[in-house]
Amino acid sequence: RLTKAVIDSTDLPVTVKTRLGWDESSINIDEVAERLQDIGVQALSIHARTRAQMYKGHSDWSHIARVKNNPRITMPIFGNGDIDSPEKARDVLAYTGADAVMVGRAAQGRPWIFREISHFLEMGTHLAPPLVTEVKRLLLEHLMDHYSLYGEFSGVRTARKHIGWYVRTLPGGDAFREHMNTLQTADAQLAAVAA
Fold this sequence. Notes:
The protein is an alpha/beta fold. The protein contains eight helices and four strands. Strands 1-2-3-4 form a four-stranded parallel beta sheet.
């Protein structure tokens, strides 16, 4: 009823992202997908874990494949869960027949993963990792948008995790993250990233 109310309140396309079900004993994604399509949902992204799993264990993509192969389902189906590399994106698409993939946590601090996946799917080869200068530029842009959205007080505090994600694989990233956690102003964070 809630999703139908949203659909009825707008001319915009409504999409849904959901999990397989609450827990292993209540996996109901097949019924949910059919009901969502019947009320007018335009696309469905399926995270291949239950709510009880949170982010533990492994995604079970067989449920996505079953929904995608259901002859009643004509809306686009997006696969989600554990897609953290171009190879995983390829594998999910091949295994499930999904129309696309959705990347979540793997994009935190790594927004270039989308171009890596796109390039790999098109060319079959890997792109070179971004240069540190590009990572710095992207992070500075991200921080400016972040502070603009949240304001300085909340923005500085919530930016710390984003900064940590960006630098986690860089040499000295852990020490840099620890230093960032001591900074109390947007200017100080920006200056540290710029330096």
